[in-house]
Amino acid sequence: TQLLEQSPQFLSIQEGENLTVYCNSSSVFSSLQWYRQEPGEGPVLLVTVVTGGEVKKLKRLTFQFGDARKDSSLHITAAQPGDTGLYLCAGHGSSNTGKLIFGQGTTLQVKP
Amino acid sequence: EPEVTQTPSHQVTQMGQEVILRCVPISNHLYFYWYRQILGQKVEFLVSFYNNEISEKSEIFDDQFSVERPDGSNFTLKIRSTKLEDSAMYFCASRLTGGSVGELFFGEGSRLTVL
Q1: CB of B90 within 8 A of CB of B21?
Q2: Fewer beta carbons within 10 angstroms: which end of chain A, N or C?
Q3: Residue of B9, B10, B41, B43 to mutate, interface with A, max A Cβ within 10 Å
């Protein structure tokens, strides 16, 4: 069974601080995706990483895929209150149906 | 911008009742999914649907669950006899392409409360 473990589960920081969220597995994933979910809404895709060692940047967010394609990280630089939300990592299952396996999520609160 | 729409946004039902959750995926998408999220827990895969048939289902998706695409636009999830533990947010999702890279678009969810 493929599982994704996210850490930390909760993070409360001050505006301007940096943070890193981790997504780990014992399984290899063909790709990993990061989503953001607002209360009362569905997850919205932020990025997909496909190649081992790949780094992608989205403004102040930096996503990295581990060399062995078993783990990923999300780093936010100079966090702002608008970054507050639930961040989810998800990997495609070993079948080819497009099924996603989600981590349990990281709830981020950025205080002004 | 095209979006996945779900109805109802919230449904309250008595245990043992049948529930149908409705979804309108993005119009040119070919792959359809249902996920659920029990309060405080992770998003869990229920079922994937392609070419008018189920392509994969999870252990959660037992005989009480069924999906249907009755016409060219709707995609429904039916729970025949609801249990208390079916209370959750149910998300419909769709995507244009298969494989492991394409973007999955989620609806805003239908909250099901079973009393």
Answers
A1: yes
A2: N
A3: B43
Please check whether residue B21 is in contact with residue B6, taking contact to mean a CB–CB distance below 8 angstroms. yes
The HSE-up count of residue B54 (CA atoms within 13 Å, CB side) is 15
| Cis upstream peptide for B8 (omega within 30°) | yes
Alpha-carbon dihedral B81, B83, B85, B89, rounded to 10 degrees: 50
Name the nearest CA neighbour of A71 among A104, A106, A27: A27
- Identify the CA nearest to B88 among candidates B43, B22, B29, B55: B43
- Contact between residue B69 and residue B5 where contact means Cβ atoms under 8 Å apart: no
Chain A residue nearest residue B90, CA to CA:
A42
Q: How far is residue A68's CA from residue A53's CA, in Å, rounded to a whole number?
A: 8
